[in-house]
């Protein structure tokens, strides 16, 4: 479970909108439509939220319109998160089906194999506090 990436809070408005359109397109065409003929929330509800957010993005840049944009964005993100949860349950862990949803799949953390190399360019200096030193070294990839 939890194979779909639903972290949109740091994305720009344009990126959230583009991802929502991608998801809607993927779920209304094959192979996504074949794997997920019925979704909750439905594709029509998602399209309505996309259209509402897109309309809010086109409004003048006033504080009232900014609040409306934020409200529509949060509603769209919440809808996509609910949709992702339902798709994950329906797919039952099948990554081929999940890849056809338009959502990005979560990446597995990369771990190094074997012992790590010794740190290079090791530097140490006192901090002015008795018994304390600050040590720095060159970063080791995959550590």
Structural commentary:
- With 143 residues, this protein is mainly alpha-helical.
- The chain has a domain at 13-99.
- It is built from five helices and two strands, in the order αααααββ.
- A two-stranded antiparallel sheet has the order 1-2.
- Helix 1 packs antiparallel against helix 3 and helix 3 packs antiparallel against helix 4 (63-91).
Counted by DSSP, the helix tally is 5
Sheet having the most strands: 2 strands, antiparallel
Over all CA atoms, what is the radius of gyration? 22 Å
Instruction: Tell how many strands the DSSP assignment holds.
Output: 2
Q: Please, what is the oligomeric state?
A: single chain
Mean pLDDT: 92
| Form type | flat
Taken as a percent bin, the fraction of beta residues is: 5-15%
**Regions with little confidence, pLDDT below 50 for 5+ residues:** none
The strand order across the widest sheet is 1-2
H and E string: HHHHHEE
Structural class: mainly alpha
C-alpha end-to-end distance = 27 Å
Summarize the structure.
The chain is mainly alpha-helical and 143 residues long.
State the main characteristics.
single chain, mainly alpha, 143 residues, two-stranded antiparallel sheet, 2 strands, 5 helices
